[in-house]
TrEMBL record:
GO cellular component: cytoplasm
Protein name from the UniProt record: Threonylcarbamoyl-AMP synthase
Annotated catalysed reactions: L-threonine + hydrogencarbonate + ATP = L-threonylcarbamoyladenylate + diphosphate + H2O
Keywords noted in UniProt: ATP-binding, Cytoplasm, Nucleotide-binding, Nucleotidyltransferase, Transferase, tRNA processing
Keyword ATP-binding in record: yes
Function according to Swiss-Prot or TrEMBL: Required for the formation of a threonylcarbamoyl group on adenosine at position 37 (t(6)A37) in tRNAs that read codons beginning with adenine. Catalyzes the conversion of L-threonine, HCO(3)(-)/CO(2) and ATP to give threonylcarbamoyl-AMP (TC-AMP) as the acyladenylate intermediate, with the release of diphosphate.
Organism: Thiomicrospira cyclica (strain DSM 14477 / JCM 11371 / ALM1) (Thioalkalimicrobium cyclicum)
Hydrolase found in the keyword field: no
Subcellular localization: Cytoplasm
GO molecular function, one term: ATP binding
Domain called YrdC-like: residue spans: 1-173
Gene it is expressed from: tsaC
Amino acid sequence: MLPTVFAYPTEAVYGLGCNPLDEQAVLEILRLKQRPVEKGLILVAADMTALKKFADVFNPQWSDKLQQAWSDTQRAVTWVVPKTLSCPNWISGQHQSVAVRVSHHPLVKTLAQAMPDGVLVSTSANPAAFVPARSETEVIAYFGADLPCISGELGGLTQPSEIWDAQTLARLR
């Protein structure tokens, strides 16, 4: 069984994760990051179907674009899409949209699949204004040894995921 809040390696940096429907866990991640709830968080899954509870990923206007980007194993792409009524505000923040990604990283996929809905919060493991952690040592330096950190390798990318708006096709990061 996974801890309520934990750090873990992603494609390029360590992330902080939890069950997105556990409001207290999400609020703890926001406290650790010193991040306001209004900004929203990224959700990650092992497959597109798991995201449909939280996001309008199967909209014919953009679902092909999402699938194409997520099939490229050399990139990590996050898409901002309209949220569903099931997506809590502590995930979407002040937005009517939510950021979502399908990961190719084996450990991230396993962690997402271990969540009740197959979806995991994925936000970089760093306090606001600091660079994201790229090792367990850096996670501990930021948050202390009491934060559970799942061991594993980063996915080989040098930059955190690209972020695109599915409706406008604007690159946000």
